[in-house]
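Could you help me review a protein record that somebody else here produced? Here is the record exactly as it was handed to me:
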Amino acid sequence: MISSTPPKAPFVIAPSILSADFTRLGQEVTDVIQAGAQWIHFDVMDNHYVPNLSFGPMICEAIKPLAKNAAHEPIPIDVHLMVQPVDALASSFAKAGANLISFHPDASAHVHRTIQVIKSLGCQVGLAFNPAEPLSVLDWVIEELDLILIMSVNPGFGGQSFIPSAFKKIQEARQRIQASGKNIRLEVDGGIKPDNVRAIADAGADTFVAGSAIFGQANYSEVIQAFHTQLSA
């Protein structure tokens, strides 16, 4: 029996390249890492599970060599699959260099099996939850997870506003993580900006996906520092 709660993980800022300038994607990845990005968030949309189409595994493979910090240490590529079915694309992204792959439980016919497929390919695995989706599946699989991703917008498009009801879900997810006794990251994606990131962290999140809040700005270093300033307050 676990008698103590694991220490809370350090905060991570994970810029979403969905909001980057696609005409210079490689340079955008390099620039945002130099500006202080700790992860690169990779939104995969199939125009089926969500009403948009984005990146395939070849893009992941192409940017993988660029995902290194100034000390030439690898920066994790955090892949969020908004696709249905899941397993085949999860395997392709694992082979393309993804470090962590999250998927939506309602997009998989067999959630536990999909988790095992991703783990067997050497990746960490997460479950992603849409704004109106309950967390009840965690009753059965939380012990297998490395990350829980709470969507604070409806998936499919960048630049949306944070849905306030996400606070309650973030709090519930944090309670479940603490009860599990596991070191599971709690990531939030959608409408995150420096002026609301502190409240999101206070609700229990430790990993923050930001797209237009970073790539839409003139100085990536300044905005990433603004996130960290708020988080350290």
